[in-house]
Amino acid sequence: MNIRINRNIKLSVISIPIAFLIICIGTSIGSSNINLLDIISIISNKLIHTSLNEGITGQEISIIFDIRLPRVLLAFLVGGALSVSGAVVQSVLKNPLASPYTLGVSSGAGLGAAIMIIFGISIPIIDSTFSLPITGFIFGLLTIIFVLLFSKSVDRLMTNNTIILAGMVFSLFLSAMITTIGSMHGDSIKAITLWQMGSFAMKGWQYILVFIPFIIIGIIGILLNTREMDILTFGEESAKAIGVNTNKIKTRLFIFATILTGSAVSLSGIIGFVDLISPHVVRKVFGAKHNFVIPMSFMFGGCLMVIADLISRTIISPSELPVGAITAIIGAPFFIYIYFKKSR
């Protein structure tokens, strides 16, 4: 066991420079490629005021620090947040095919964000920059509440399969609502359709500053419950036998997962499969202990999203593909693989 833990610690430490390298690569590639060493020089100059490498122009500094770096960092944070949410949902429901999307949380948050985008609504007592992620969280939370209430009404025991099926019903219904609202406002339908597929285009530093508090609250809340998540993996009956209130733990974890998913979706659009792929891969490498699964899902999901975003903006440059299309191309075969493996 100690050998496994030591190995996991080493891999966790190695993941930090790998993530940094992927972020730098994502920042360096674009319509005009910029040297990796120049990227590091610009970032260190902005952070700790070191001297710039020779030959770096003001235009390159602006491209990197004002346009590409915030976009890449937001992609990393959104990918990480969605992956952690996926890890939580899969653990709580003990189903590798479960995700915030299948529970309707992503679609609920998306509906809230779409309403705000189309009608230009904001929350009166809250700064406008925080209105979108807060609305995403509220709609996502309302969705999971309705899913749980509906599940309880048809199955008093609230079995995991019932929750997943109820979530899928709500997800389809809310996705249809988003499309309907967009269609009723013809000038918005294209923007809403593209937004539903996800994009990090034109996202500046303010989006990151708004998103960070939600990430901190969501991830700290989940990390404080990793022991309970480990217990739940042995089954609800075993957990109840040692005094764990499983319904209370489930509800608490769903709320923290909704904070992450709701805020992420409201800022980037509905991006699928990252929350499905990342936790599955991480468990294969690190095992089932959630004190490793949660942080490593964040790192892996963040890196995967940066790579997907890089492909989406370079494959048909100067145009862009929605990043959700790239994650779907990667994720659909993976979903089929998990499904058939689970069926055996």
Automatic annotation (TrEMBL):
Q: Does the keyword Membrane apply?
A: yes
Q: Name one GO biological process term.
A: siderophore-iron import into cell
**A single GO molecular function term of this UniProt record:** transmembrane transporter activity
Q: Keywords, A to Z?
A: Cell membrane, Membrane, Transmembrane, Transmembrane helix, Transport
Does the keyword section mention Iron-sulfur? no
**What's in the GO CC field?**
plasma membrane
Q: What is its main location?
A: membrane
Known SUPFAM superfamilies for this protein? ABC transporter involved in vitamin B12 uptake, BtuC
Spans through the membrane: 12-31, 72-93, 105-126, 132-151, 163-184, 204-224, 253-272, 292-311, 323-340
Subcellular localization(s) per the UniProt record: Cell membrane
What domain of life is recorded for the organism? Bacteria
Q: Which InterPro entries match?
A: ABC_BtuC-like, ABC_transptr_permease_BtuC
| Membrane-related topology note | Multi-pass membrane protein
Give the family, as the similarity comment puts it.
Belongs to the binding-protein-dependent transport system permease family. FecCD subfamily.
Protein name, per record: Iron(III) dicitrate transport system permease FecD
> Which organism is the protein's source?
Clostridium baratii
